[in-house]
Amino acid sequence: MKRKHNPVARISPIKIFCHQIFLSGLEGKLLIDIGSGPTIYQFFSACESFQEIIATDYTDKNLQELEKWLKKMPGAFDWPPVVKYVCELEGNRQEGCCFMTQPASLFLPSRPEWAEKEERVRRAIRQVLKCDVLKERPLEPVVLPASAGLISLCLEAACPTPQACRDALRHLRTLLRPGGHLVLSGSFKTTFFMVGGKRFPALPLNEKFLREALQEAGFIIKKLEKVARAAETHLDNHSDYTGLFFLVAQRGD
Question: Which Pfam families does the protein's record reference (predicted)?
Answer without folding.
Answer: NNMT_PNMT_TEMT (PF01234)
